[in-house]
Structures are given as structure tokens and as C-alpha cells.
Amino acid sequence: MSEGLSPDIAAMADRVEAFVRDVVVPYESDSRRDHHGAPTDELVMELREKARAAGVLTPHIRADGSHLSQRETAEVLVRSGLSPLGPLACNTMAPDEGNMYLIGHVGSPALKDRFLKPLVEGRGRSAFFMTEPADWGGAGSDPSMMKTTCRRDGDDWVIDGRKTFITGAKGAMVGIVMAASVDEASKGGACMFLVDLPDPTIVIDHVPNTIDTSMPGSHATLTIRGLRVPAAQMLGEPGEGFKYAQIRLSPARLSHCMRWLGACIRAQEIAVDYACRREAFGKTLIDHEGVGFMLAENRILLQQSRLMIDWCADVLDTGSLGTVESSMAKVAVSEALMKIADNCVQVMGGIGVTDRTIVEQVFREIRAFRIYDGPTEVHKWSLAKKIKREWKQAQTSTSQGEAG
């Protein structure tokens, strides 16, 4: 994977991999989990102290605060994903990694110092407040339906609304809240605000148990009543929130692909080891065509996924928002990884559905990945709309050419 990388990035990626395999993997059986099954903050902070000591904490951000390129980030994040605990330990986990990217690109120097610095240093977690409950008629995959509002009141903005599936809200110290403006100057436009958490005006209504268990704080539903935020804590300009969301979401979708590719590489290693050792019907499992072919298919899908990630990373590194490319990558990679994880469970049989290895967890996490950051079907629908627009434009150009 390291071909073409600068020596310092290749060395960092190797250090991350060694740290995850040697230090983090033994923690996978640690019992410090919440009722939801996610690692407790105590466990996360213990791992981060070890990452700090090993020089692999927040490896995707340089000492001067600049971000690695997307291709460089891929190398580091894939390695951190070799354990479900790896991104938490190395501080490359969602939603923090995406939030750090957004604040780093849009935030003022004062906001970076106050809100970004503690995240980069791994001293706390963050949450991104965008999705809203369906039973409230709010924004799910369609942010134009956003019903959470913000209004200007003197030197402050006041926010009211509801949010749901807010990953990591419980226990977070930094929040990015997205709301639709009712102020005349930016009416109808979205705004983003940085807030200190917890805040008494943000009340967590429910934290569900979900199929995935890798993210501390789970995915909360909450109510915001009269949250007062100083105007200086607005992220960027009023009414520009949708634009900033795209700055965050395109690379964030790709980062998910990177981390879960690492998890599936590890699941494949475990499944291969099992298939090469376990004997049935007179030979090892891998020598049975049905099993061997699944592992061969996995090898192909892993390579295809990496190529898709690198292609999308190259597009983002040109400065493009890459919304179309990140949609395609998210669909292709999440579906491929789902097949890989499913094959690994199948190869391992009964062992594959137990917690004796991480394979069953990887299967659950990838299944959830197919939904968050936009379900596969929403991305396909969006791409189909683009295809239709392109067709219409081509027809118009042809007609104009014939008329000329």
C-alpha cells in the first residue's frame, strides 16, 4: 500500500499498524463497555494515552495543524482500522475526524484554538448535530427538510429543535449544531455553530441500542430548547451551512471507507487463518472449493475497494468537493465490504457468529455503515438524477449543434 508515499508518511503508517496490532488488539476483550456495548470513555482515554506515548495520536494532522492529503490519510486510516478500537485509540474515529477536518477548513483562528485544539490533542470527543427525527418531519438524508431553527437575538443566536442519530452526543465536549436560519439576512439558509457540551438546553431523550457498538455515546435522540450561542461561535458565514456540510461529508464518507477497509482486512486475515487450520471431510477448509472461492472473492473485493478509495482520494486532493465521487465510493466500498464480512462469517461457521473474534462485530459495523452517511439507495438516486441531467444537457447540445 505504501508505494508512492513519502518516507515519513509510510513510516507513520507502519507505526500506526504496529501500534494497533501490538497494543490495541489485546484490548478487544476489555470489559469496559457501556450498556450499549461501546467502549467507555475511560477505556478510550487509556488507549489514547498509549497512542500519545507511541507517537501515533491524531496521525492524520501534522504538528503545524495541516491535514495530510486524502491519499496519505487513506494509508494511515486503513491501518488504524485494523481493530474496531484502533480509530478510537489513534483519534481517527468518526465523527471526530470529520469534525476536525471541517473546523480546520472553515473555523477562525479563535474557534480552532478553543474547539479544534482539544480534539486534535485527543482530550475529548465531539458530535455533529444534523439529522432529525422522521416522526417530527425533520431532516434525515434530505437536509433541505431541516426544522431545527436559529434566530439572531442581539449578539447571540438562539437554537430550537430536535436531532436524532447524533453519534457520540452523550459524553461529547464539542458539538457542531446545524440549524435553518429564520433571520431575514439568511432566511432559509443553514447555519453551523460550535458549542461546548454538555449544555443544559440540549436534553438527551433517548440513546438506543443499535447493531453497531464501536462508537462511544451511541446515536442519541435529543431536544434543543433555547440554546443560546454567541455569534462569534458561528462556523463560517450565515446561510452557508449546506456548503460547509459538503466540505465535511465528502471526505468523511471516504474516511469511513478507509477505516472499515482496515477492519475487513483484519477479518479476512482471521478467516484465512481459520480456514487454513480447520479440517473437515479429510482436508483443510480452504481446500474445499466453496470456502476457498469465498476467500478468493474477498481478496478481489479488498483490492477493488482500495482502488476505489485511492481514486476518490485523488479527486478530493485536486481541490474538488468530490460529492459525486464520494457517493460512488461510499456505495461501492460499503457494499463490497459487506460481502467480505459476510463471507468471513460464513467461512468460520459457528465461531464466526460468536465474540471469540472480531469478525462478528465487523459484520455488524459494516451493516450499519451501509446506512449512515447516506444509505446506498439515496446515493444511487442522487447519481441517477445526475445521469438524467447529463443526458438532457447532451440532448440540448446536440439540438443546438444541428440548428447551427
UniProtKB/TrEMBL annotation:
Domain of life: Bacteria
InterPro entries reported for this sequence: Acyl-CoA_dehydrogenase (IPR050741), Acyl-CoA_Oxase/DH_mid-dom (IPR006091), Acyl-CoA_Oxase/DH_mid-dom_sf (IPR046373), AcylCo_DH-like_C (IPR036250), AcylCo_DH/oxidase_C (IPR009075), AcylCoA_DH/ox_N (IPR013786), AcylCoA_DH/ox_N_sf (IPR037069), AcylCoA_DH/oxidase_NM_dom_sf (IPR009100)
Residue span, Acyl-CoA dehydrogenase/oxidase C-terminal domain: 239-386
Domain (Acyl-CoA dehydrogenase/oxidase N-terminal) ranges: 8-122
Protein name, per record: Acyl-CoA dehydrogenase
Any one GO MF annotation of this record: flavin adenine dinucleotide binding
All copies of domain Acyl-CoA oxidase/dehydrogenase middle, residue ranges: 127-207
Subunit structure: Homodimer.
Family: Belongs to the acyl-CoA dehydrogenase family.
PANTHER family, A to Z: ACYL-COA DEHYDROGENASE FAMILY MEMBER 11, MEDIUM-CHAIN SPECIFIC ACYL-COA DEHYDROGENASE, MITOCHONDRIAL-RELATED
Any single biological process term in GO: fatty acid beta-oxidation using acyl-CoA dehydrogenase
Keywords, ordered alphabetically: FAD, Flavoprotein, Oxidoreductase
Species classification: Bacteria, Pseudomonadati, Pseudomonadota, Alphaproteobacteria, Sphingomonadales
GO cellular component: cytoplasm
Cofactor: FAD
